[in-house]
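TODO from last week: model HD-GYP domain-containing protein.
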Amino acid sequence: MIQAVAVKYLCKGLFVVELENAKGRLRVSKPGRIHSSDLINKIKANGIKTVWVDFEQSDLNRYVPDINQRNPKPSKSISMEVERKRAESILVKSKDLLSKAIDSLYEGKNIDIAPIADLSESIVDSIRCNPDAIHCVAALRNKDSYLLEHSLNVAFLMVSFGRHLGLNQQVLKQLAIGGLLHDIGKTQVKLEVLNKPARLTPEEFEHMKLHQVLSEPILDSIPGLSDMSRQVSLLHHEKLDGSGYPKGLYGDEISLVGRMSAIVDIYDALTATRCYKESMSPAAAFKILKSMTPYQLDTDLLNEFIRDVGVYPVGSLVELSDGRVGLVWESNEASFLQPIVKCFYSIKYGRYTEVDMVNLAERKQLAIERGLSPGKENIDPTPYR
């Protein structure tokens, strides 16, 4: 799968086959992977504007050592108010498109990748401009639409995570496609198991695990689907110690993309409301994810994921030090502990209050006391999202 990549988006591990400058495309005498930052700088210094990359031969695992050093968080280029409108439109289109794709599979038809690829470009562009917007509008979830909304959120989180790691936009697009399709095998699982309003029995869980195996022929039937997108789907239940499924891969057998998708999938599942459980606060989810390192999940990647979404993620419910409760509305690039919070409830008085947008960077006498789970606190944030 050979695609053009702007030189500013280059990273180690990409397999370069051709270069392009103002005069046209140039063949590379010895195609190969970018192995150092010095080579990237050399390409830029030679006036190259575009690089043609073979993503099938690229190895993004080579990027892993770089994430041990804290990357500066990419800046937001568009305000929350402006980008939120586009994010709301993207969310509506995403749900409609993914719902149609799922219906097609139930009817025995193939998935058309073209509209999904177009949608993925929109997702990547929105998150590039301001990731808070799409995470904020996606936080409103319906427990009866778990498969649909989980797939969307995994796509959003994978793109945001990849952006944080510095992966280029073509890679981010493949991550988005993979996220949207990552649980597609569940369309082949028995409905009484998939929609069971209670925890699964051991036998039912073994049947549910087959969705990973059942995903492969569906993905194989989609022309033009990249190997990177396939990895998001096929590797998100693999664990570093070999205890995962379906193949029980171990250590370096799991790619960077697979390690990322494992973290994202578990996090979103823990923080979602299901028909048989309430959502967990992000802080509680992070605690569980931390307990799975270093044996099952990649420690360095998990740390970077937490830095990306923030200790108090956009869209989550928090209590301030004055007893007010609100939604984290917008992140603070200078300090992840001082976001903007949309307050609407008082624990002290046990009632909903007038909405107050609190910028903790400016109201230094206030701080976030703790993250909350809406269901456990019996507080409904839905009207305030």
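Done. Residues 80-309 form a domain with the Hypothetical protein af1432 fold (CATH 1.10.3210.10).
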